[in-house]
Design brief:
The chain is of the alpha+beta class and 528 residues long. The chain is built from 18 helices and 17 strands. The strands form three sheets. Strands 1, 2, 3, 4, 5, 6, 10, 11, 12, 13, 14 and 15 form a twelve-stranded mixed beta sheet that branches. Strands 7-9-8 form a three-stranded antiparallel beta sheet. It comes from Flavobacterium silvisoli.
Length: 528
């Protein structure tokens, strides 16, 4: 018995030893192979100095160089300094990257002490890392700024990018690849260059509250013509008059087109408001838009729908070519359309419309209180919490916000004949409308958040891409039945609901009304 006890204890001890966790293997840091040093000197860095900066990111980078100085090459330093000095071309502020201090170190490079040499190396690396992060994903986090924005967060591996740049045969090209490559971003950079070429703006604001039509005479036309000449929409005449002549009408139409206004030649509040923007205000607007485009993802996919909310335009892009363009109606300033990225899921023909809470509170309840026939006129069925139909006579204002309101399919339905669904937390979608005359308006910030699309059946047929089951004729037959039918969109098609108010085309500055008042506020957050 004694021998058995000894054997059991021995086995137990052996088992405990087997359960001792093995120490985790520490990943090996691969030291970068340096080229032969022909200038400068390599110095050891006291790692305690990292505490003055973004310690971890700096430490991770210098780990690959055995915690020794890196920037011995004068050519590479020149590239870095030039890039930081020209940060304004990306809408960034060079002063944020300590450019003056860096240039001071560089001018004295041959005379720097060992301590100053280490300080310069660290300062250069820290600010380059910061710059890479800013050009890759922007300075600010949109998700922290806006409750109604939902974009996939961009994560920048700054250390990896900088190491790859160091190893690259073209350091500058490697850094440039971090910047947004989308055409709109490049056009924004061009817009900033174009704007900076304009002389100092000393023109005063125009105060005018009426309308001016061709052949009118008005003294305010002198100031209007000066503004048009400043922006190169009107060639400088021999003398200025207070007559709204044909040359000025042509110039106004050019100006209106560049600003997304109705190019009717009538000078009203919208045209005056756009004329009153100063050069500096337009610069702020471009910089705000450059920041936004750094938030947006780079790879948009083979096929996608891209919507510019302030431009009221939806474009279908396939293999980098715009194949279709549709007018849209977007949310009002009170009920904004959210900014988001998603993927189209399916189309719904003959959709019902479940009225959202905001519209129930602000539209349906007040209208029903005034007229109990409102619900029947709009073909809306009311359900209580148990799913029972609530007749108009039994509708109670005290319970009104607890009811569910559903509008039946049909031409009178607020969603029209079709809607396009994509996952998002805001419950918004693309849809038809029973107010198609609204597409003739210039200002189409009219909806309750969802996006209404002109000619949506044409768009839907293109997306379904099935000429047998879902040709225009077959779709018409489905609509005639009045029955709700869901159809999956087979081709992977992404959707980008984005917001930008400035760009350039053919050396012309283009601007749109900042319908949600985001530009100036964003600029202030970027600069202060």
């Amino acid at each position: 018995m004694y021998k058995y006890l000894i054997l059991i204890l021995a086995l137990a001890v052996m088992g405990c030893k087997n359960e001792v966790p093995k120490p985790k293997a520490i990943p090996l840091i691969q030291t970068v192979k340096r080229p032969a040093v022909t200038e400068g000197r390599i110095l050891k860095i006291d790692t305690a100095l990292y505490a003055k900066f973004d310690r971890q990111v700096l430490s991770d980078f210098y780990n690959h160089f055995a915690h020794e100085t890196v920037w011995q090459s004068s050519n590479i330093r020149k590239v870095i300094l030039n890039e930081l000095a020209q940060a304004s071309q990306e809408g960034l502020n060079p002063e944020e990257y300590k450019i003056k201090k860096l240039y001071d170190f560089e001018k004295r490079f041959g005379l720097l002490s060992d301590k100053e040499m280490v300080d310069y190396d660290l300062l250069l690396t820290h600010n380059l890392q910061k710059y890479i992060k800013h050009i890759s994903q922007g300075r600010l986090n949109p998700m922290a700024l806006y409750k109604d924005w939902e974009l996939n967060p961009k994560k920048t591996d700054v250390v990896k990018i900088l190491l790859n740049s160091y190893k690259s045969t073209d350091f500058l090209a490697s850094i440039d690849s971090c910047k947004p490559q989308h055409l709109v971003y490049k056009r924004l950079k061009k817009a900033l260059v174009l704007l900076n070429s304009f002389p100092k703006d000393t023109l005063k604001k125009i105060t005018f509250g009426e309308k001016i039509i061709p052949n009118d005479t008005n003294n305010v036309l002198l100031k209007i013509k000066q503004k048009l000449m400043y922006w190169n929409d009107l060639k400088k005449p021999d003398s200025l008059t207070n007559i709204y002549d044909s040359r000025t009408v042509t110039a106004i139409k050019k100006f209106q087109t560049r600003h997304g206004l109705a190019a009717d030649g009538v000078i009203g509040k919208g045209t005056i408001a756009a004329l009153n923007f100063s050069k500096e205000q337009r610069r702020h607007q471009i910089i705000a838009n450059l920041e936004r485009w750094k938030w947006y993802q780079q790879d948009l996919g083979q096929q996608y729908l891209i919507i510019n909310i302030p431009d009221y335009t939806l474009r279908v892009v396939h293999d980098n070519d715009t194949v279709k363009t549709h007018k849209i109606i977007v949310g009002s300033a009170k009920r904004k359309t959210p900014v988001l990225s998603s993927k189209l899921s399916y189309a719904v023909f003959n959709p019902t419309w479940t009225v959202p809470p905001t519209i129930i509170k602000e539209d349906v309840i007040p209208a029903t209180l005034k007229n109990r026939n409102y619900l029947a006129d709009k073909n809306i069925t009311v359900y209580d919490a148990d799913g029972n139909i609530v007749e108009a006579a039994n509708w109670r204002a005290s319970r009104a916000r607890g009811y569910r309101y559903v509008q039946s399919p049909g031409t009178y339905n607020s969603l029209g004949m079709v809607k396009l669904i994509f996952p998002n937390r805001f419950s918004v979608y693309l849809h038809d409308t029973n107010h198609r005359d609204y597409f003739d308006k210039t200002n189409r910030s009219l909806s309750s958040g969802c996006v209404r699309v002109e000619n949506p059946l044409e768009l839907t047929a293109y997306l379904l891409n099935d000429t047998i089951q879902y040709s225009k004729t077959k779709i018409a037959d489905i609509l005639k039945t009045g029955k709700t039918q869901n159809v999956k969109i087979q081709a992977t098609t992404y959707l980008y609901l984005w917001y930008w108010t400035a760009w350039s085309e053919n050396d012309k500055l283009l601007f749109r009304d900042d319908i949600y008042d985001l530009d100036e506020d964003l600029y202030k957050k970027l600069r202060y």
